[in-house]
């Protein structure tokens, strides 16, 4: 009798709960990643505003190429600066190091008869030596990075003035092409589009899709936490669309794929892998998140700090080569405020002021925001002093948003 009177549960009743659970998970995911998506939204809004305000000049293909070439040094320096800040340090010397190393690079080519490819390698190594010098005082002597790099800012600016002096110009065109040139178009054109650029863009989009799908499958296989499926699909679609649109713009430009963009892209991929998939990267995050706990867990903090500043020096050497090639000459005044640009880009891109949190890709978004502001304000004839005011306000707003978001999450 009891069996006959027991009613089965309605088949449709679990479904609304499931949908509610999925929507709740998506809302929680978006809320937890508000900073990241807010910065992407800010980049889109700022770009569209300047596109409207300049009557379409902002996103002309040749202007996009100029944006990449003019801000390549910011991208490179920001990669290293993120790692430094995540570990709980700061580096104020990178602009002066760029001037010093760039000047020595030009002297090697023009006065010491060193072949420019050799000079490029030696310049990057010189940057690494500078980083090792500063890293020694920070890691093994225990002087705060702020003090050491402040001293380095003065020291290497003085050396640049001493040894470079007046402008060292007349650099070879092949060397200058590192920052100003594009990949040769070996494949001709697809309609009006540069075929080499189209091919690289297609490979990049495909690589992005494969890597994201593979990563998600690996997380699911190991029963680890993953983002909601809707967020995953949305992020992948937007990423592929962004790569496709950038490819279309570059393929329509006068030269095609900029060489310096390939350099920056390879560095972003390399350092994203290092920070996300290596023991060294985990140690950097651990030190910034909780230094005493990292030391108790066996992290060799002195070695990690030393290597961080060696790496920053190497990247400053790369930025020095790019800056010198972009200008076609070396001057002692090069690199002014470069350290401020890199630090601002890191913070705008979501790197925590107190360390422990930050991503290479987020910092690149921050660098793009700085670059778009620089170009957009220049096109609209905003005077330099007001450009500085606006960029300063953007930096303060980004850090304030980060702090308020953390308080809201507690």
From TrEMBL:
Major localization class: membrane
Subcellular location(s) per record: Cell membrane
Domain of life assignment: Bacteria
Region described as Disordered: spans on this chain: 1-22
Claim: Transport is one of the keywords in the record: yes
UniProt keyword Glycoprotein, yes or no: no
UniProt feature, compositional bias: Low complexity: 1-16
InterPro entries linked to this entry: ABC_transp_permease
Coiled coil start-end: none
Protein topology in the membrane: Multi-pass membrane protein
Matches recorded under PANTHER family: ABC TRANSPORTER PERMEASE PROTEIN YPHD-RELATED-RELATED (PTHR32196), XYLOSE TRANSPORT SYSTEM PERMEASE PROTEIN XYLH (PTHR32196:SF32)
Role summary: Part of the binding-protein-dependent transport system for D-xylose. Probably responsible for the translocation of the substrate across the membrane.
Protein name: Xylose transport system permease protein XylH
Source organism phylogeny: Bacteria, Bacillati, Actinomycetota, Actinomycetes, Micromonosporales
């Amino acid at each position: 009798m009891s069996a006959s009177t027991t009613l089965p549960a309605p088949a449709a009743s679990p479904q609304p709960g499931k949908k509610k659970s999925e929507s709740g998970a998506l809302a929680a995911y978006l809320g937890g990643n508000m900073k990241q998506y807010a910065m992407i939204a800010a980049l889109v809004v700022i770009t569209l505003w300047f596109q409207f305000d300049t009557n379409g000049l902002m996103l002309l293909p040749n202007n996009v190429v100029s944006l990449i070439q003019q801000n390549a040094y910011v991208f490179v320096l920001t990669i290293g600066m993120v790692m430094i800040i995540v570990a709980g340090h700061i580096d104020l010397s990178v602009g002066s190091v760029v001037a010093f190393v760039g000047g020595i690079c030009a002297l090697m080519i023009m006065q010491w008869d060193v072949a420019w490819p050799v000079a490029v390698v030696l310049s990057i190594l010189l940057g690494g030596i500078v980083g090792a010098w500063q890293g020694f005082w920070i890691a093994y002597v225990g002087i705060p990075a702020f003090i050491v790099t402040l001293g380095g800012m003065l020291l290497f600016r003085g050396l640049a003035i001493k040894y470079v002096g007046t402008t060292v110009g007349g650099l070879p065109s092949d060397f200058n092409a590192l920052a100003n040139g594009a990949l040769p178009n070996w494949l001709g054109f697809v309609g009006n589009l540069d075929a080499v650029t189209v091919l690289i863009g297609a490979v990049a989009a495909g690589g992005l899709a494969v890597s994201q799908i593979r990563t998600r499958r690996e997380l699911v296989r190991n029963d680890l936490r993953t983002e909601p499926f809707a967020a995953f699909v949305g992020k992948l679609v937007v990423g592929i669309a962004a790569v496709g649109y950038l490819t279309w713009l570059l393929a329509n430009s006068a030269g095609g794929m900029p060489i310096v963009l390939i350099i920056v892209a390879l560095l972003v991929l390399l350092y994203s892998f290092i920070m996300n998939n290596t023991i060294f990267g985990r140690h950097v995050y651990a030190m910034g998140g909780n230094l005493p706990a990292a030391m108790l867990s066996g992290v060799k903090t002195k070695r990690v700090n030393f290597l961080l500043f060696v790496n920053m020096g190497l990247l400053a050497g790369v930025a020095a080569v790019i800056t010198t090639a972009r200008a076609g000459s070396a001057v002692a005044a090069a690199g002014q405020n470069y350290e401020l640009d890199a630090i601002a880009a890191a913070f705008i891109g979501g790197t925590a002021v107190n360390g422990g949190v930050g991503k290479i890709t987020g910092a690149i978004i921050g660098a793009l925001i700085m670059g778009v502001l620089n170009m957009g304000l220049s096109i609209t004839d905003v005077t330099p002093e007001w450009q500085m005011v606006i960029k300063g306000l953007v930096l303060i707003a980004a850090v304030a948003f980060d702090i308020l978001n953390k308080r809201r999450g507690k």
